[in-house]
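With this grant's support, we have settled on a layout for protein records. One resulting record is reproduced below.
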Amino acid sequence: MCNIQIRKGFVGLMVIAFCMLVSTPILWSGPIEEGAQITKEYLKAFHEGNAEALSALFAKDGLYISWAGPFPADGREAIRAMFAGFFKMYPIRQLILRDEVRKAYGDAVTLYNNWTLIYGDAKGNIKTVYGRNSSVNAVVEGKRLILFQDGSLLPVAGP
């Protein structure tokens, strides 16, 4: 009888330990982890071609400076329109991030990364470009949002 009670106690203890282990990252997440979550949501929206979801990750007055054009998209609506146009023009797209570095300064988080973008039009014309990105996110409007993002192409090595 005592052996059964010990086993039940041990199983109960294991269930509690498992629940704590699963919930700990959620409970202990800070600015860096929240910034990493934004990156996951950004990539998901980008690959799905969801300009609405992608622009919702930016602050209302967020600024996006694209590698592909001379003018910044200033504000959430301009960012949404810019990505909607890109997604319509290039239904084939894959964005791969690498060398991600995040730094927290109080509540603000900076992100630097290099990227590879493979994109193509409806006719199947595929291009690949390589670039780098810098962005800043912080808690505004009651949630963590991207305040600024600047993407640029990597320089091409000469002969």
Notes: The chain has one domain: 31-153. The longest strand covers residues 126-140.
